[in-house]
Write a structure and sequence with these properties.
Elements lengths: L1 H21 L57 E6 L13 E7 L4 E6 L5 E7 L1 E7 L7 E7 L3 E4 L4 E6 L5 E7 L7 E2 H6 L7 H8 L3 H13 L2
Length: 226
């Protein structure tokens, strides 16, 4: 019964997120045909993916049967893990302007500040108590944040920096839908402090108002982090 209830909750969350995104502007190219299953075997790569021969498409192309969304994924040292379903592992999403994520949190786990350069995101909490928010662009830099519990949904506007943290000792899980088949992700700290080769520490020191040796220590920690 517990498994069945959990499955129903996941389905409801995905339906809610999908319906919400139907009202959003699609940032990917609009489809000019009913479907365009991405042809992963093609070597052609431009702004998108070529279509599979429609005469060879079957119903199985439209069904994602991988169980990565059903099971909890191992978390990273910061206590979270994001499992994405994009056009790269579900070719039927090609030209449809949507993708999915499952986010698992350990106790007090963090999904650090990041943004998706090609999409908006709708997040629904399935289990746990999540502090969730986003920050608008300068000069306002306005924070919108709130504690979400099971069944609560929040939207992160297009390309805005957002984050989550599990506020409890128990594990938490959320699902999200994004308005792009391949939204991308840029984690702020990873990008700035973990680049290869590293950004000049003096530049980061002045930018973040930190001592240069502190910046260098942070950069070193990213180099050796898994």
């Amino acid at each position: 019964m517990a498994t069945s209830s959990a499955s129903q909750t996941i389905v409801i969350a995905l339906v809610m997120a999908s319906l919400t995104l139907q009202g959003l502007r699609a940032y990917d190219p609009s489809p000019l045909q009913d479907f365009c299953i991405a042809d992963s075997k093609s070597s052609a790569r431009q702004n998108g993916f070529p279509c599979k021969d429609p005469t060879k498409v079957t119903v199985d192309d439209f069904v994602f049967v991988d169980n990565i969304l059903r099971r909890r994924a191992p978390t990273t040292p910061i206590g979270s893990n994001v499992t994405g379903v994009t056009v790269e592992n579900f070719p039927a999403l090609n030209t449809q302007g949507i993708s999915l994520e499952r986010i698992d949190y350990d106790s007090f786990g963090v999904n650090p500040p990041h943004f998706h350069p090609r999409g908006s995101e709708v997040l629904t909490v399935l289990e746990g108590r999540i502090y969730s928010g986003f920050v608008t662009t300068p000069p306002e830099n306005r924070l919108f944040a709130k504690i979400l519990t099971k069944g609560d949904t929040m939207i992160y506007p297009y390309a805005q920096i957002h984050f989550q943290i599990n506020l409890d000792k128990t594990r938490a899980v959320a699902f999200s839908a994004l308005s792009s088949q391949l939204p991308g992700v840029i984690r702020v700290a990873d990008t700035l402090f973990g680049s290869a080769p590293p950004i000049l520490s003096h530049l980061l020191s002045r930018s973040f108002r930190l001592r240069t040796d502190v910046v260098e220590q942070i950069q070193e920690s990213f180099v050796h982090s898994p």
